[in-house]
Amino acid sequence: MSMLHQSQLMVSTGGRGFFEITDKVQREVERSGLCDGLCTVFVLHTSASVIITENADPDVLRDLESWISGVVRDGDPAFLHRDEGPDDMPAHVRSVLTQNSIGIPVRNGQLELGTWQGIFLWEHRLAPHRRRISLTLVGASTGPG
Amino acid sequence: MSMLHQSQLMVSTGGRGFFEITDKVQREVERSGLCDGLCTVFVLHTSASVIITENADPDVLRDLESWISGVVRDGDPAFLHRDEGPDDMPAHVRSVLTQNSIGIPVRNGQLELGTWQGIFLWEHRLAPHRRRISLTLVGASTGPG
Amino acid sequence: MSMLHQSQLMVSTGGRGFFEITDKVQREVERSGLCDGLCTVFVLHTSASVIITENADPDVLRDLESWISGVVRDGDPAFLHRDEGPDDMPAHVRSVLTQNSIGIPVRNGQLELGTWQGIFLWEHRLAPHRRRISLTLVGASTGPG
């Protein structure tokens, strides 16, 4: 039985950093009734990313942040676009270097993720923001056909 | 009513730079009759990208280009692959660092984009090219079920 | 006739490097009976990527590897996460900078790829690994409707 389900998640960030959303996305998969198919996670902003990375050791997240901060420098004088401060343009560069949208398989009602894979919103702005994430689920439902 | 629609867009680039395709993709969504679902934008080349970034201030695009030019240098003597010139291998690196394919939600016949999000073809080669973009739309149509 | 097909590929890597999987993915498209739709290739690991790049000149792959090795350095003393060696954290950074998931159009039973596009698993760890790739195909089948 073919189905489509769409919804939005809101994530309140405390400023730059990683916010794991794996459980929120999984709950939405369950709420939708999708059994097998594809769940596309799309962030509705140009200064935050959705990424998948290791969710066991928090040092991985610290290292991702420190690495990218070294390569895309806040306050880089080469940037012309700085309306909203020294982290404005770096946030757009980080967004383009990572991902806006990830398609994740769903099997038997579960996100099919590797053992260490977690889904994260990566907030690139220094100040807290409310971020909207759009979910689109397509595939076959568990319901009576 | 389940539906599938596929088509190609052609984009003539004037050489390295950004070419916004949001309106072209939106028009194809309308032409397809898709009401709710997923629109996947796929670029059929290895030296151009599809990205989503801010489409209000053109300085954002200039800064993206200047940032990546500083990190992936044209004519870098470390590159072995330079059959087509000093921008050949840098174009492949830029392509791998960004995206070939983006899945974008469609709701009520509209691409569901954030306020500042635009879809762009990013031409990485210095010379003008004709670039092909493939669109795949899946979901529910507006037509009579 | 609407269809969904899911399966996994295993890729045994000989350590860091590129392993082309275009033919394997194409064979799975054929086995599934998908005529037109979308094939999503998803890697179930946080230290390997799926990418699309030029598959004609092997120098392109050598240059991609040498470029990223220069930007994300093995044994970088700034990295805290090094449980599994000097290539552990760099593998996570490389994964986040590239892609976990690619949606590829399928038309008339064939992956719709540009002339020079190949699909690759990029192993970022130095040691050989067995990597799992999940495929999700949605669309219209060739079978009798």
Structure description:
The structure is a homotrimer of 145-residue chains. With 145 residues, the first copy, chain A, is an alpha+beta fold. Chain A has a single domain, classed as Sandwich (Jelly Rolls). In chain A, 24% of the residues lie in helices and 41% in strands. Chain A is built from 3 helices and 8 strands, in the order ββαββααββββ. Chain A has helices at residues 22-32, 58-71, 88-97; strands spanning 2-12, 17-20, 34-43, 48-54, 101-107, 110-111, 117-123, 130-141. In chain A, a hairpin with a 2-residue loop joins strand 5 and strand 6. Chain A is elongated, with a radius of gyration of 17 Å. Chains in contact: A-B, A-C, B-C. The A-C interface holds A 2, 36-38, 51-54, 57, 59-60, 62-64, 66-67, 70-71, 97-99, 102-105, 107, 112-114, 116-117, 138-140 and C 2, 4, 6, 38, 40, 42-46, 71-72, 76, 78-81, 83, 89, 92-93, 95-97, 99-101, 103, 132, 134, 136, 138.
